[in-house]
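Entry type: protein chain
Record version: 2
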Amino acid sequence: MIDIKNIAKLNSQFFLIAGPCIVENEDSCFEIANHLNNLCQQYDIAYVFKASYKKANRTRLDSFTGIGDEKALRIIDSVRCEFDIPAITDIHESKDAVIASKYVNALQIPAFLSRQTDLIVAAAKTGLVVNIKKAQFSAPSAMIHSVQKVIDSGNNNVWITERGSSFGYQNLVVDFSGFPVMKSLNKPLILDCTHSLQVPNQSNGVTGGKPEYIETISKAGIAAGVDGLFMETHPKPSESKSDGANMLPLNEMEVLLEKLCRIRAALD
């Protein structure tokens, strides 16, 4: 298994965090992980499998939130053991940190929770990598405080993920001028290429998206010098039980990764 705590220094490529939005079943997780792991080996990209084991931040009460916490976590653990790859999942409450830490190599703090001190400290104290998504309402310069919470809790293994800033009620934009600000914190910087293209706050309570721009924004991220990319993908996004509207179809990943590697090679 790759050294996730030094993943940004493993090679000249970017690293990839990718997988389904949420664990739907074992078969789909294994299909996605197998495909992505093979591609990342082919293109010399360090790969981290991503899947949420539950979703607490849903708009509607009847939205899909998971298949059961322990069942989903065991599937994530099975994926990382089968393919010998690290895994990451997000947590929403402080008590989740210790529970989830037994099954993954990194814990993710959702954007809306990036100021929750108790949650960040609990994640930091597990000793795992803590990936903090920048809130849609936060300035890039404000991320120093979230990062410092992890460091002051005795854990230097922290990442920052840009996932867009609110621009009106139903739009997000990525301000690339903020990337040097966050890079100055000397922690790996990741661009979330799918959630940055969400169309939130739809009247039907289901988040929309603009996946046709995933290639554009990911190319811009590589050109801007990010260390990693975050993407959610699914064999059939329209059938995904969560965030399908902003996912990249699994069969389109190879073409995109090949283009991104060429951009990174040109920069090097």
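Comment: The chain has one domain: 4-267.
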